[in-house]
Amino acid sequence: MILGLLGTAEAPRTQNAFTRLEALFADDMSAVNALIIERMHSPVGMIPDLAAHLVSAGGKRLRPLITLASARLAGYEGTAHIKLAATVEFIHSATLLHDDIVDHSTMRRGKPTANTLWGNSASVLVGDFLFARAFSLMVETGHLRVLGILAGASSIIAEGEVRQLAAIANLDLDVKEYMQIIEAKTAELFASAAQVSAVIAGLDDTGEQALARYGRELGLAFQLVDDALDYSGSEAKLGKAVGDDFREGKVTMPVAKAYASADAEEKTFWTDAFAKKQRSDADMAHALRLIDKHDTIKATLSQAREHAHNAQSALQIFDDCETRKALCDLCDFVVERVF
Hints:
This protein is an all-alpha fold. 76% of the residues lie in helices and 1% in strands. The chain contains 18 helices and two strands. The two termini are 14 Å apart.
């Protein structure tokens, strides 16, 4: 289980690291939250109600925090980073609304999903509303390159989700292809969240690419840990059902590695299980036994740690300071987190 792999002593340290990051940017994050609430307003009552349900559900706000912290690390002194952080959160929230429909999810962060409460149609349309709000905020910054980066990221995220949908139940999905999928659907927004701060700060290409690499590597680590937690986490701490990926037919890293190491009998189980329209609790229990047998949670977390280390290395071109340390500590938090 992941708790044993991570070690009980590490969780408080990394949680404190995240708390320090939140404290460093508390004022900026308050401004971001106020802007989000302001821009969720609409005379159509269902829109702010549904959007508020998603936003108020909590979450770590990692992506807007990355934008805020990257702006400070880059030496930015204006206010556009507040709008960009809100933009990033709107894009993320919109993708969550759409993802929950595609995945038939019923729980998100411990609460019923919006599509469960309001229906799929409303969730799709409010997701579109949030995307529109995001683009309005981008335009208001007055930076054409920022618009290009975040618009491009939105397209890449959608492509990543479609690629994942096309790969449902595909046990021939290799590690390289899966990494390309999660780079698109998850890491691209992390990368853009950091890169746009470099743009508004006027950093040179070296600085801009360093921040983009930091975000991308951190996003890869984040998704790999999510993959591991889906087979080894606590439902109460995850805020969603454990095993959702398996039930939805998603071949993530723990399964891909277990299948690659499987003998003939095990391969038959995986093939039969993923050929079904629905996988049973007994299927899930056997899948967990095989994942444990081949130690693929540990292997997935090891790969996540490599990407987290790459993210930390990307920041070494910047002067040593409290913000750089906080961003490096965030990498440890992402890998060792147990929600």
